[in-house]
Amino acid sequence: MPWLRFVNSRLVGFFIWRALCGALALAVATRSSYAHPVSISRALVYVRPDEITAEIEVFLEDLYLFHTLRTDSRDYLSATEIGRGIQLHRQFIAERFQILDIDGRPLVSKLDSTTWQPPASGVPLAELMDHQLTFSLRFDLDEAPEFLTFVQKFTDGGAVLPSEMTLHVQQEQQPESEPVALRPHEPYILRLRWDGPPLSMGDGREQQVAWLVKAKQETLGISSYSSTYSFLYVENRQVRHEILIPLQTLLLDLPIEHEHRDFLSPEEQRGAAAVVGDYFAKGLPVRINGATVEAKFEKCDFFGLATKDFARDANDRDVSLANGRVGVILSYRCPAFPETVSMSWNRFTESMWAVDVVILAGDRIEKRTLSRVGNRQQLEWESPLPHRVVPFSPLRANDLPQSLSLSWTAILGFDIAILIWLVGWRILRPRLTKSPSTPAVFAAAVVALVVGWFAHSRIWQSDPISTAEAAQIFAPLHRNVYRAFECPTDGEVYDALALCVDGELLEHVYRQIHQSLDMQDQGGAIAHVTSVDVSDGTVQQTVHARSEPSFYYVCQWDVAGNIEHWGHLHERRQRYVASFRLNVINGYWRITHWDVLDEQPLGTTVTVREFSR
What we know:
About 30% of the residues lie in helices and about 35% in strands. It has 11 helices and 31 strands. The chain has a 6-stranded mixed sheet with strand order 5-7-2-1-9-10. α2 packs across α3 and α7 (about 410-430) runs antiparallel to α8. The chain is elongated.
């Protein structure tokens, strides 16, 4: 029927027209909502020793979007609906804007009232971005904080249109700081200092340097708590790689199971350690002197913000997912000194586009930047100078002055020898007529042996070795024992030790010194001996012999050495007391006995290596 076809076409056209109008109205109404991220806000934070105040500025649109507020027939938000949204958003901000303490636990906030009052007629959707609200929070403190961590969770981290917040933090009596962009679920960590007034323009260069040195020592050189640090230690017969990475950064690429939403328990840390170690061992291939070297996983620790954590094993308390850090140590052993080192960094994450690698080889420090942009993931390092060890030489024994010395034992020996000869002569005299040659020769031989032995061992004696002479003999031998471990291979270490230690003692001394230098509890770090100071040496006994003299020597010595981690040096001193015996063997002095009588630590100092990010 014509009229039916006409009605149908009019109905279809009507619905199409209404759909187009609805789409246009929706586009106009939401134009301001989707022309920018879901939420744009600003946080102004003021920190005092006993209190933190925060003002969070948001647009009225946030209330509409986050709490699904209802509009009236005019597409207006009524004053009543806005009031409901304010109450909901006050609780929303209290829960989703967090300030964490040094252990990663949220500070308890107190809400203050919002002063903004909506107009009685309400606000049209198109004008939501024209109105701002300020929500005030207050946090009471028991003591002045050393670290604060700021986190906003207004949207999920993976949101297509994530929330953005500009954070301004001002510490009382400190210069104004620069604002930072706070993205959702990405913590910002701030260290605060309360121990002195800030530097001013009138302060001299000396005051500025002193302030910077103190600040660096306090933080152990870690200037950013959201950055990844990489340290390559080129040492004798190994390369040690230490990585310090924020836990949040690691979790983007390596999910770690955890029961609590915000923390890793000690058990979970220990369970994750091997997984994290394997993740880096496989993702950071290394070649040394042209040969691929397999990584040995030494240890993995989960640290909090307290700098004292670096000086000891961690993993004994909960670690915050927001401000925790992970320290991984890998070692690459090689038979000789690493002349060339090549490493590929294949462990960039979504939030880590570049990493600074600090290379520490002896006193030389270099920094390279690796990046996932521009195919700059490969590091190549070559030693500027070949590794040399000062040649070792044995200590030749000079001829000791000899003197004729008659002792009571020598005189007694002569008397006994004469007595034996007389008794033997009297007993054997009746028989001499029958066989005069045999008894006489036998008696003469006995007397000659006895007299010769006493003359050799008791009459001609070496002068006793003085304390000064003993020190001159002992000091170079003892020093070379420690120097031997600078050699690039085990074989060369043994060869150097053999020039100052007797063969039977060689294995014992090697194990004893190597164990004291290879600190397993420090993740494979090798202590580098910087000084050996011998004192209070005394000669206990001199064994007199013309051909191979020897003496017993007791002394005390202090050993100073460096153990280095995370770009800072642990300088340790250890004191020993031991008894030694030194012998002349084949014309050269050797240590033939080594017995440690006492051992005590003298303390540790920590200094920061001078490198800059």
